[in-house]
Specification:
alpha+beta, ATP Synthase, domain 1
Protein backbone atom coordinates (compact mmCIF):
# COMPACT_ATOMS: atom_id res chain seq x y z
CA UNK A 1 0.00 0.00 0.00
CA UNK A 2 1.30 3.47 -0.89
CA UNK A 3 2.03 5.86 1.96
CA UNK A 4 0.77 8.93 0.08
CA UNK A 5 -1.96 9.91 -2.32
CA UNK A 6 -2.46 12.90 -4.62
CA UNK A 7 -4.86 15.63 -3.49
CA UNK A 8 -6.07 18.32 -5.87
CA UNK A 9 -8.48 21.00 -4.62
CA UNK A 10 -9.94 23.07 -7.44
CA UNK A 11 -12.33 26.02 -7.68
CA UNK A 12 -13.61 27.68 -10.87
CA UNK A 13 -10.93 30.37 -10.38
CA UNK A 14 -7.82 28.43 -9.41
CA UNK A 15 -6.06 25.30 -8.27
CA UNK A 16 -5.96 25.85 -4.50
CA UNK A 17 -3.96 22.78 -3.49
CA UNK A 18 -2.06 20.11 -5.40
CA UNK A 19 0.28 17.88 -3.38
CA UNK A 20 0.86 14.34 -2.21
CA UNK A 21 -0.66 13.82 1.25
CA UNK A 22 -0.90 11.09 3.89
CA UNK A 23 -4.49 11.62 5.04
CA UNK A 24 -7.56 13.80 4.40
CA UNK A 25 -10.59 14.29 6.64
CA UNK A 26 -13.65 15.87 5.04
CA UNK A 27 -17.24 16.46 6.20
CA UNK A 28 -19.99 14.83 4.14
CA UNK A 29 -23.76 14.79 4.71
CA UNK A 30 -23.32 11.29 6.20
CA UNK A 31 -20.53 12.37 8.59
CA UNK A 32 -16.77 12.76 8.48
CA UNK A 33 -14.89 10.86 5.78
CA UNK A 34 -11.34 9.83 6.76
CA UNK A 35 -9.34 9.04 3.61
CA UNK A 36 -6.04 7.17 3.68
CA UNK A 37 -3.93 5.78 0.82
CA UNK A 38 -5.63 2.77 -0.75
CA UNK A 39 -9.17 4.03 0.02
CA UNK A 40 -11.89 2.50 -2.13
CA UNK A 41 -13.43 4.43 -5.01
CA UNK A 42 -16.00 6.98 -3.90
CA UNK A 43 -17.76 10.15 -5.02
CA UNK A 44 -19.70 12.15 -2.46
CA UNK A 45 -20.81 15.68 -1.71
CA UNK A 46 -19.10 17.82 0.91
CA UNK A 47 -20.61 20.01 3.60
CA UNK A 48 -19.73 23.65 4.20
CA UNK A 49 -16.83 22.97 6.53
CA UNK A 50 -13.09 22.70 6.88
CA UNK A 51 -11.14 19.96 5.15
CA UNK A 52 -8.20 18.68 7.19
CA UNK A 53 -5.04 17.74 5.27
CA UNK A 54 -2.22 15.78 6.89
CA UNK A 55 1.06 15.82 4.99
CA UNK A 56 4.06 14.20 6.65
CA UNK A 57 3.82 15.62 10.19
CA UNK A 58 2.10 18.86 9.19
CA UNK A 59 -1.62 19.51 9.42
CA UNK A 60 -3.49 22.16 7.44
CA UNK A 61 -7.15 23.15 7.24
CA UNK A 62 -8.94 24.83 4.36
CA UNK A 63 -12.46 26.27 4.55
CA UNK A 64 -14.77 24.89 1.86
CA UNK A 65 -18.08 26.14 0.54
CA UNK A 66 -19.17 22.56 0.13
CA UNK A 67 -18.68 20.76 -3.15
CA UNK A 68 -17.73 17.24 -4.18
CA UNK A 69 -14.87 14.81 -3.60
CA UNK A 70 -13.82 11.90 -5.78
CA UNK A 71 -11.44 9.22 -4.50
CA UNK A 72 -9.98 6.94 -7.17
CA UNK A 73 -6.69 5.00 -7.28
CA UNK A 74 -4.84 7.08 -4.65
CA UNK A 75 -6.03 10.32 -6.24
CA UNK A 76 -8.44 12.71 -4.56
CA UNK A 77 -10.16 15.51 -6.46
CA UNK A 78 -12.09 18.13 -4.51
CA UNK A 79 -14.31 20.46 -6.52
CA UNK A 80 -15.65 23.47 -4.61
CA UNK A 81 -17.08 26.80 -5.65
CA UNK A 82 -15.09 28.61 -2.96
CA UNK A 83 -12.07 27.72 -0.78
CA UNK A 84 -10.16 29.86 1.71
CA UNK A 85 -6.93 29.19 3.54
CA UNK A 86 -6.55 30.42 7.11
CA UNK A 87 -4.42 33.36 5.89
CA UNK A 88 -7.04 34.40 3.31
CA UNK A 89 -9.91 34.75 5.77
CA UNK A 90 -10.64 38.44 6.37
CA UNK A 91 -11.42 38.82 10.08
CA UNK A 92 -13.44 42.03 9.73
CA UNK A 93 -15.54 40.61 6.91
CA UNK A 94 -16.11 37.38 8.81
CA UNK A 95 -17.17 39.23 11.98
CA UNK A 96 -19.57 41.46 10.02
CA UNK A 97 -21.04 38.39 8.30
CA UNK A 98 -21.52 36.68 11.65
CA UNK A 99 -23.40 39.69 13.07
CA UNK A 100 -25.58 39.82 9.96
CA UNK A 101 -26.40 36.10 10.23
CA UNK A 102 -27.26 36.40 13.92
CA UNK A 103 -29.70 39.19 13.07
CA UNK A 104 -31.30 37.03 10.39
CA UNK A 105 -31.55 34.09 12.78
CA UNK A 106 -33.17 36.24 15.45
CA UNK A 107 -35.68 37.47 12.88
CA UNK A 108 -36.63 33.93 11.91
CA UNK A 109 -35.26 34.23 8.38
CA UNK A 110 -34.02 30.98 6.86
CA UNK A 111 -30.34 31.21 5.93
CA UNK A 112 -29.44 30.90 2.28
CA UNK A 113 -26.45 28.81 1.15
CA UNK A 114 -24.34 31.96 0.90
CA UNK A 115 -25.34 32.99 4.42
CA UNK A 116 -24.36 29.53 5.76
CA UNK A 117 -20.96 29.84 4.07
CA UNK A 118 -20.39 33.26 5.62
CA UNK A 119 -21.55 32.03 9.02
CA UNK A 120 -19.12 29.13 8.85
CA UNK A 121 -16.22 31.42 7.90
CA UNK A 122 -17.04 33.76 10.76
CA UNK A 123 -16.71 30.91 13.27
CA UNK A 124 -13.77 29.06 11.67
CA UNK A 125 -10.61 28.85 13.81
Amino acid sequence: MASKMRLDIVTPDRIVYSKNVNRVIASTPAGDLDILPGHSWRITSLEISAIKIIRDKNEQQLSLSGGFIEVHKNKLMVLASFVETQTEIDGKRAKAARVQKELKLNGGIVLTRRARIRTYHSTAP
